[in-house]
Amino acid sequence: MNCISKIKNILVLLVLSIVLFSCETNVEEETGINPDPTSPVICDPDISFVASIKPIIDNNCISCHGGNQAPNLRTYEGISNNADRVRTQVVSRRMPLGGSLTNEEIELIRCWIENGALNN
Fold this sequence. Notes:
Elements: H1 3-25, H2 49-60, H3 62-65, H4 76-81, H5 83-91, H6 103-114
Helix pairs in contact: 2-6, 5-6
């Protein structure tokens, strides 16, 4: 093997190593969401359904869950009766389909539900 071939091989290996290493270590860490739902997180007990939760649901969920698909999330009763399901889907980021919630919106929903999903 000549010198140029050796240099090319070394460069290819170097580039591949850099690419693989950067992909492995360049992972954005999710902030603002409790990754372990069993660990205690202090939530604001005064999160308002009307002022905070209903607008998030209306803006992100009603297009699908406004009576056309289960669960129906148009009313407080529909949301509170499906609170655990809503929390699971939102925290896992499986919902909303075709959209996304901010970390703050996810935390508001999670905390509101964990505080009893009050109609306040």
